[in-house]
TrEMBL record, chain A:
This is Amino acid ABC transporter ATP-binding protein. Gene3D superfamilies: P-loop containing nucleotide triphosphate hydrolases. One of its GO terms (molecular function) is ABC-type amino acid transporter activity. Residues 22-256 form the ABC transporter domain. The keyword Ribosomal protein does not apply. Belongs to the ABC transporter superfamily. Keywords: ATP-binding, Nucleotide-binding, Transport. InterPro entries: AAA+_ATPase, ABC_ATPase_HisP-typ, ABC_transporter-like_ATP-bd, ABC_transporter-like_CS, MetN_ABC_transporter-like, P-loop_NTPase. The lineage of its organism: Bacteria, Pseudomonadati, Pseudomonadota, Alphaproteobacteria, Hyphomicrobiales. CDD domains: ABC_HisP_GlnQ.
Automatic annotation (TrEMBL), chain B:
CDD domains: TM_PBP2. The lineage of its organism: Bacteria, Pseudomonadati, Pseudomonadota, Alphaproteobacteria, Hyphomicrobiales. InterPro entries: AA_ABC_transptr_permease_3TM, ArtM/GltK/GlnP/TcyL/YhdX-like, MetI-like, MetI-like_sf. Keywords: Cell membrane, Membrane, Transmembrane, Transmembrane helix, Transport. This is Amino acid ABC transporter permease. GO terms for cellular component: ATP-binding cassette (ABC) transporter complex.
From TrEMBL, chain C:
The lineage of its organism: Bacteria, Pseudomonadati, Pseudomonadota, Alphaproteobacteria, Hyphomicrobiales. Belongs to the binding-protein-dependent transport system permease family. HisMQ subfamily. Residues 19-207 form the ABC transmembrane type-1 domain. The keyword Cell membrane applies. The gene is ehuD. PROSITE patterns: ABC_TM1. InterPro entries: AA_ABC_transptr_permease_3TM, ArtM/GltK/GlnP/TcyL/YhdX-like, Ectoine_EhuD, MetI-like, MetI-like_sf. One of its GO terms (cellular component) is ATP-binding cassette (ABC) transporter complex. It is a multi-pass membrane protein. It is found in: Cell inner membrane; Cell membrane. This is Ectoine/hydroxyectoine ABC transporter permease subunit EhuD. It comes from the Bacteria. Keywords: Amino-acid transport, Cell membrane, Membrane, Transmembrane, Transmembrane helix, Transport.
């Protein structure tokens, strides 16, 4: 486990040499007649921080949920951590354990303590014994600055605390990629920052992150690249400096105007 | 006897089944409404009294209630026909359950509804009549349908008081010709024919109600 | 014939004799109904082809009176050479009848678990059996505890149906007294009081047990 204080400054050039963490080619998905995603192309390198934004219903969540196959795509190629994901394939859990996911509504397990939420997959999937698993869990709860709540149940925590536990739970599996699906949308305003701070720390540690979020301040500060989606398509991709000051596409301009007032 | 003959013979008892059901509803609905509303609003000794009454009818086993009233009312000088006792006991038993769903539905209503009604200057009774009860009753229609089915099924008990309902007819037929497999299969089928459409109807109402709620929340 | 209170007091112990069988039948039927109900619900959730059959089966159980189901088993099973003691037939009948309702309890208990729970489990790489065993089942048990408790009392209240099969439970004992003394009012009223008391005790026990097991969470999730 990397100590949190050891902030590695990230080097993009180095990663582009490796195979990408996620490679999406011509990805399409539809529900009956409704097209959720149309020919999406996106390559994400290890260590990259991507923020996906766009109006509601633009397919952001669908895209991120395809990456760990909570949603199944119908067309196109999807390679995650070097494995090509085929709809209906077996052995998905082997891929998912290397892809952490944080949900809008936390999805903590209400019948388990914070600690057990973190250790369950370590013990059942990674086959660690209880002591090892708890050590990993404590380290990660420390990382999200919530070690003192280990023995509580999720319902006893605030929304912000719950979401930090959810992040710790995902981190315990030592994922190569972290997916965040609107992690702050269900939170009261005063709790948003504690979650964003933890995410910022993660980014500074060099975690590969794909975040669907409306928090443009976070995007500006943390993202290497902003991906703007509308109507199931990627309309524009640019570094934040460029995207926020000089968006190319009309729909991106309109979106920014609405969201930044 | 053929299957169809048996079924036809059983349905000769349908009129008694139907009458007991309808009379039972005539007891159940007013009892559920009055007891449920009273239990929701009353306090102190009145509430205690209503609660005891409801629990008596709801918590005693139906078959025991039926026998106890059928045999003991005459001992207290009250002479009622089997149909009257059957309908009363079934109706009040089911009504006891119904009162609990009315009370639950009233309790589940958003307090803001009452406050909005009072703020408009409506009297408390008008708020109950025009705002609370209509919403509560809509919510409990599926429960009500289920209770109606319980009532129909419960009417089989009146055969024990020698009323010639469908179940009693089946027993009569089995005395004429010993063919338990056909006769009791037919009897099960007969009740299924009567109750299943009600189940389907209830499910339809439930679906419609939940769709209605969803469309409201989407607006 | 006037109601004789002294006589009623006198026969109390005789009617009470059936209480052992009443409780035995109730417990056995509760176990039977839970097991059968669980099986129906598993079948309903299995393949696309089994589902409508299981649904119709559950509906059929719920659309017919328990009294008629008891008669059916009592008269039809021996016809096929299956001769069971009356009490076992009765337990079977009550188990089947309530299994139709308990299947719905299991269904609601599973449906009430948000989809996000199994999504979170699979995003952690948990296998399907682990997801069911560690995530779905524990939450389902918590969801079904209260309705299952309520049905256990309903089952207790249905045990006197077994009197029609001449099973010597409490209502049966009351009938024994009645046929010996030719007085029906008093034994029936005594049985009524005893069953009402038993049901009340049942409700209190179930509530306490739920609280003791912490199955009704103090704080809502």
């Amino acid at each position: 486990m990397t100590p949190i204080h050891e902030l590695s400054v990230h080097n993009n050039a180095q990663d582009t040499m490796q195979a990408p963490a996620i490679q999406i080619e011509n990805l399409s998905k539809w529900y009956e007649s409704f097209r959720a995603l149309t020919d999406v192309n996106l390559t994400i390198a290890y260590g990259e921080r991507i923020v996906i934004c766009g109006p509601s219903g633009s397919g952001k969540s669908t895209l991120i949920r395809c990456i760990n196959q909570l949603e199944v795509h119908q067309k196109g190629r999807l390679v995650v951590n070097g494995v090509t994901l085929v709809p209906g394939m077996k052995g998905l859990s082997a891929i998912r354990r290397d892809v952490g996911m944080v949900f809008q509504h936390f999805n903590l397990f209400p019948h388990l303590t914070v600690l057990d939420n973190c250790t369950l997959a370590l013990r059942r999937v990674r086959k660690l014994d209880r002591r090892e698993a708890e050590a990993v869990a404590h380290a990660n709860l420390e990382r999200v600055r919530i070690p003192e709540q280990a023995d509580k149940y999720p319902s006893q925590l605030s929304g912000g605390q719950q979401q930090r536990v959810a992040i710790a739970r995902a981190l315990c599996m030592k994922p190569k990629v972290m997916l965040f699906d609107e992690p702050t949308s269900a939170l009261d305003p005063e709790m948003i920052n504690e979650v964003l701070d933890v995410m910022t720390l993660l980014a500074q540690d060099g975690m590969t992150m794909v975040c669907v979020t409306h928090e443009m301040g976070f995007a500006r500060k943390v993202a290497d690249r902003i991906v703007f989606m509308d109507q199931g398509q990627i309309v524009e991709q640019a570094p934040p400096s460029e995207f926020f000051t000089n968006p190319k596409h009309e729909r991106a301009k309109l979106f920014l105007k609405q969201i930044l007032h | 006897m053929s299957f169809v003959d048996i079924l036809r013979g059983i349905f000769e008892g349908f009129d008694v089944t139907l009458i007991v059901t309808l009379l039972g509803l005539a007891y159940a609905i007013p009892f559920a409404l009055v007891a449920g509303v009273l239990q929701h609003f009353s306090q102190g000794w009145l509430r205690l009294l209503v609660t005891i009454l409801i629990e008596f009818w709801r918590s005693s086993p139906l078959i025991v209630l039926l026998y106890a009233f059928y045999y003991s009312l005459p001992a207290f000088g009250i002479y009622l026909s089997g149909i009257a006792v059957g309908a009363m006991v079934l109706g009040l038993n089911i009504g006891g359950y119904g009162s609990q769903s009315i009370r639950a539905a009233l309790q589940a209503l958003d307090r803001g509804q009452v406050e909005a009604g009072l703020a408009l200057g409506l009297g408390r009774l008008d708020v109950l009549r025009l705002i609370e009860l209509p919403q509560a009753i809509t919510v409990m229609i599926p429960t009500f349908i289920n209770l109606a089915i319980q009532l129909i099924k419960g009417t089989a008990l009146v055969s024990l008081l020698t009323l010639t309902d469908m179940t009693f007819r089946a027993k009569e037929i089995s005395q004429l010709s010993y063919d338990p497999v056909r006769i009791y299969s037919s009897l099960l089928l007969a009740y299924f024919i009567v109750c299943y459409p009600v189940t389907i109807f209830g499910r339809y109402l439930e679906r419609r109600a939940s769709e209605g709620r969803r469309s409201i929340s989407e607006i | 014939m006037k109601f004789d209170f002294a006589f009623a007091m006198e026969i109390f112990p005789q009617v009470l004799q059936g209480i052992g069988n009443t409780i035995l039948v109730a417990i056995a039927s509760f176990i039977g109904a839970s097991v059968l109900g669980f099986i129906w619900e598993i079948l309903r959730r299995s393949s696309r082809f089994v589902r409508p059959v299981a649904q119709l089966w559950i509906d059929a159980i719920r659309s017919t009176p328990v009294l008629v189901q008891l008669y059916f088993l009592f008269f039809v099973l021996p016809h096929y050479g299956i001769v069971l003691p009356a009490m076992l037939t009765g337990v079977l009948g009550i188990s089947v009848y309530f299994s139709g309702y308990i299947a719905e309890v299991f269904k609601a208990g599973i449906d009430a678990i948000p989809r996000g729970q199994s999504e979170a489990a699979s995003s952690l790489g948990l296998s399907r059996p682990d997801t069911i065993g560690y995530i779905i089942m524990p939450q389902m048990l918590r969801n079904i505890a209260a309705p299952l408790g309520a049905y256990s009392v309903s089952i207790l209240k249905s045990t006197p149906y077994l009197a029609v099969l001449a099973v010597p439970e409490m209502l049966g004992s009351a009938f024994d007294v009645a046929s010996e003394t030719y007085r029906y009012a008093e034994p029936m009223v005594v049985a009524g009081i005893l069953f009402l008391a038993l049901a009340m005790i049942g409700v209190a026990l179930v509530t306490r047990l739920e609280r003791r097991l912490g199955l009704t969470p103090a704080k809502d999730l």
